[in-house]
Structure formats: structure tokens, C-alpha cells
Recover the amino acids of this structure.
């Protein structure tokens, strides 16, 4: 236990050295680069692809159907058991699947580059769906690798690095890809994005296979049934699932209506882009990084308390902005605080989900939990417009603050502040 910082009192020299060893370990570099590889495909079959389609004259109703290319992200738990059960004949269970998915993604982006939307729309649609499938497959393997290669105490900081790598990739495949398309062509842009997948592939080839100490499931039935049976057999399993559903529900609901809110307050599109989007990106990067470092010191349990409280307060600040009205300095302060605290909360949230997976079924359980975390956004997000109309902007953001409280109250059960070992999962998972 010498590598773990003391949860109480000033850190010892030994604990400071342990923190530094964790921060500058090869594991963290691998996690960061894999996060980049995981985030790169998202907009290339999403917003960036839709910009290409519209520029090529495709009608809006058809463009809308291309959103289905992202469907594999929400149902990835269906084939995750296969990735727990079967081991490719090269590189090992995690790296083998990673390499296959990354090679397929490179081929997919190259295939998209060779199409012309107006002339081969169906072909492009099929390739986009395939890219979505292999991207979700890569996500399964990346999440499982991160859980298995990191020590428990490193999960928080490692998750923050993965999030920042992911968000940087979204910038590359979003803003940078659009700039490249304007300078060069869409074909050249997608070929460049295919080449950027080498970041993930080279990382996969050079990184070691994690040693879990747990054998893979012996049968396909065990791989499918085992993860669910094991998880539901734990004491407090239902509470954990409820927490995952509710912890970020207020933050997620508020984010659904941010752009309409800014416009209603009279901010111009230029102001929204310059302040909200740019500062928001910086705040999220900074929050995830600082949150990860703090988790190395105080553990995931206490971080969930602190970051969750800051998340709720930051949501309430938008009610204050709604009251005071159009003010660029106030907008900058509120957005900076909200994205910073949201980045911290997301890092703790991701670290917690990783900590409650069983290493024998990492791919399936983590895929299920990450799919589950998106349910509130899909279900309750559709009602946010109605709530904003009925309650007004002040009432809406107060509601989003209050609805975060049940998730915070569940922390008394799943992550009590006084837990002796702060980085422990709420149940024994290995």
C-alpha cells in the first residue's frame, strides 16, 4: 500500500513520489494516445460528414438519416461479450481487437475519401455505418485496456487523460478537418484522418498487453451471462446503476439547451463561438486534467463528492446569468466555471465506472455502463425544450440543479466520505 497517497493529512514524501510515478508513467502516455484514437472517428461520421454532405448538395432530410451511423455507440454492449470471450491470434485479447478495429477504421476513412456523396450516397452510408461499428468496437477495447492496465489509484487521472485525448481528437476531426477541407478537398481531408489513425495503431503495437490475473470466460454463454450475473449478484448493484443514471443528469439536461439559451439572451453567434465554445473547450481540458491530479491525492470517492457539488453549483450559475442578462464578462465566468467543474466531474465519473468493473468481464461491463450513462440524456434531453418554455430560463436551470441532488445523495451509499481507502470501489470487483 505504499504507492497510495494518504487520504488524510498532508501527503508524505513517499506519497508525493508515488503520485509523480503515476503521472509520468508509460501507462498514462498510452491512455492519452488511445483516447485520441478513440475520439477521432466520432465527428468524421457525424458533424463533419454532414457538412460535407450539405456542401455537396444533399438534402437535409437525407442528411438527418446519417445520424444512424452513430447507433453502434449506444448498443456496443451487444457484441462486447465476444471481445471478452475470444482472443485474436496476435497481440493478445485487448491489443488484438484494438489493432483489428484500427486497421478497419483506416480502411473505412480511405473508402469514404474515395466516394462522392451526390454520386454514391448509398455506398457512403454503408461505409459510415461500418466505421461507426468499428469505432464502437475500438471504444470497447480502449476502455477495457485502460481499466486493466491502470492501478486502482490511477483510474481517476488516467480517465482524465483519456477524456482530454478524446476531446483533442474531436477538435482535430471537427474544426481542423473543416479547415483542411476548405484548403484542400474532402478526399484529402479524409485520407489525412485515415493516416492519423496511425497514432492509435502504433500505440497498440508498442504497448504491452495488460496482465489481469483473471482468465477470459471459458464459453460464449459465460461471456454473455457472466458479466450481468456477476454485477447483479453484488450487494448494492441496483444503487450503483441508479447512481450512474443520475449523477450527471442535471449537467446533461442543462447542456442540451445551452445554444438556444445564449441566443435568447441576445448573444451573437460570433460571441457564442468565441466565448462559449473556445473557453468551454479550454475549461473542459483544464478541469479534466486538474480533476485527475486531485483524484490521485484524495481518491475517486471524495472526488465524486467535491466535483459533483461544483457541477451542481455551476449549473445554478446559469440561472444567475439568466437573471442578470447579456453580459460578456459574466458569460465567460459562468462558462469557464461550468466547463471546468464539468470536466472534473466527468473524469471522476469515468474513473468510478472503471473501478466497479470486474477484470474478467471488463469489456462487457464497461460497455454496458457507458451505454447506460447516455440513457438520461436521450430520454430526458427530449423534454428540455418543453421545460424551458414552461419554467423560463431561470426556472429551467434551477430545475437542472435540483434534479442533480438524488445522484449526490446516493454517494452516502456508494462512496461514503469516510471510507478508509478512498480509491476502493464500493464493492470488491476482482
Amino acid at each position: 500500500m505504499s504507492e497510495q497517497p494518504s487520504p488524510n493529512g498532508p501527503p508524505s514524501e513517499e506519497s508525493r513520489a508515488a503520485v509523480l510515478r503515476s503521472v509520468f508513467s508509460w501507462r498514462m502516455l498510452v491512455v492519452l494516445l488511445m483516447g485520441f484514437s478513440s475520439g477521432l472517428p466520432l465527428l468524421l461520421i457525424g458533424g463533419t460528414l454532414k457538412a460535407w454532405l450539405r456542401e455537396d448538395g444533399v438534402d437535409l432530410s437525407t442528411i438527418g438519416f446519417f445520424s444512424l451511423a452513430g447507433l453502434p455507440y449506444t448498443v456496443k454492449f451487444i457484441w462486447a461479450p465476444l471481445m471478452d470471450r475470444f482472443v485474436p491470434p496476435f497481440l493478445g485479447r485487448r491489443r488484438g481487437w484494438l489493432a483489428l478495429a484500427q486497421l478497419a477504421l483506416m480502411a473505412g476513412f480511405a473508402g469514404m475519401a474515395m466516394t462522392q456523396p451526390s454520386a454514391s450516397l448509398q455506398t457512403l452510408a454503408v461505409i459510415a455505418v461500418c466505421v461507426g461499428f468499428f469505432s464502437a468496437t475500438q471504444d470497447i477495447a480502449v476502455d477495457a485496456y485502460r481499466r486493466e492496465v491502470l492501478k486502482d489509484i490511477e483510474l481517476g487521472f488516467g480517465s482524465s487523460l483519456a477524456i482530454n485525448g478524446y476531446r483533442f481528437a474531436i477538435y482535430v476531426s471537427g474544426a481542423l478537418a473543416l479547415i483542411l477541407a476548405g484548403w484542400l478537398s474532402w478526399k484529402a481531408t479524409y485520407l489525412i484522418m485515415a493516416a492519423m489513425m496511425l497514432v492509435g495503431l502504433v500505440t497498440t503495437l508498442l504497448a504491452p498487453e495488460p496482465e489481469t490475473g483473471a482468465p477470459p470466460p471459458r464459453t460464449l454463454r459465460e461471456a454473455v451471462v457472466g458479466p450481468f450475473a456477476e454485477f447483479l449478484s453484488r450487494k448494492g448493484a441496483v444503487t450503483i446503476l441508479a447512481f450512474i443514471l443520475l449523477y450527471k443528469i442535471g449537467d446533461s439536461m442543462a447542456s442540451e439547451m445551452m445554444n438556444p439559451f445564449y441566443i435568447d439572451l441576445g448573444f451573437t453567434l460570433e460571441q457564442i463561438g468565441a466565448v462559449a465554445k473556445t473557453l468551454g473547450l479550454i475549461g473542459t481540458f483544464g478541469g479534466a486534467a486538474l480533476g485527475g491530479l486531485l483524484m490521485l491525492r484524495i481518491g475517486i470517492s471524495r472526488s465524486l463528492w467535491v466535483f459533483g457539488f461544483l457541477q451542481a453549483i455551476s449549473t445554478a450559475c446559469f440561472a444567475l446569468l439568466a437573471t442578470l442578462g447579456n453580459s460578456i464578462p459574466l458569460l465567460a465566468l459562468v462558462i469557464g466555471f461550468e466547463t471546468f467543474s464539468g470536466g472534473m466531474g466527468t473524469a471522476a465519473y469515468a474513473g468510478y465506472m472503471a473501478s466497479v468493473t470486474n477484470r474478467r468481464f471488463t469489456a462487457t461491463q464497461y460497455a454496458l455502463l457507458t451505454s447506460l450513462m447516455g440513457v438520461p440524456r436521450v430520454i430526458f434531453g427530449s423534454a428540455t425544450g418543453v421545460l424551458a418554455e414552461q419554467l423560463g430560463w431561470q426556472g429551467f436551470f434551477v430545475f437542472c440543479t435540483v434534479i442533480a441532488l438524488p445522484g449526490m445523495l446516493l454517494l452516502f451509499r456508494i462512496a461514503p466520505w469516510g471510507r478508509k481507502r478512498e480509491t476502493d470501489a464500493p464493492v470488491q470487483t476482482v
Q: What stands out?
A: The longest helix spans residues 269-324.
